[in-house]
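Sample intake sheet
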Amino acid sequence: NQRPFEMPRECPVCGAEAVRPEDEAVTRCVNMACPAQIKANIRHFASKGAFDIDGLGEKIIDQMVDRQRISSCADIFALTVDDLKNLDRMGEKSAQNLVNAIAASRRISLARFLYALGIRHVGEHVARVLSEEFESMDAIMAAEKERLETIDGIGPRAAASITDFMRQEQNRAIIERLIESGIEIYRETPADTGSPLAGKTFVLTGT
């Protein structure tokens, strides 16, 4: 006696139109300013495969977005202890630890930076392929779709997604803000990427 499920036509968070492209199975909110999208993007940005910001978890991100302390990943690097210390379960010491963790994450490889941006169809593997093919973020931002399609491991869908992302002014503005905030992007050498320990973090406990 249950009713058949019908996919919502509006985003349940912001009320914007929900759209499913003909060749895809996923329905998405079209509003890039949707709070749910902002939170998800920042969680991805701070995750271990990306900037790996220790202490910047889901609950902290939700509070900061809900209280309009941040509205994009670029806002993270302007946060101060005063911005954080009055959040739930966040005292002055915890706030200082998080500010320190944010500062420590400023140096990042080109591959991890690309992955952190959350470009559709650009996972860790494609991000690494791009970082090996291009010498800088500027070169990737200027790359044409046809050039990207010539790279082994990057198909037409990923190439289109990358060029579409880089053409959007708000995305370019976020990248520029990140760099202006002191982000140091370095390109890994073949020796770095070939090491079995490259990109890994180890936590050793006990005696």
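Comment: The first strand starts at residue 18 and ends at 19. The first helix runs from residue 35 to 46.
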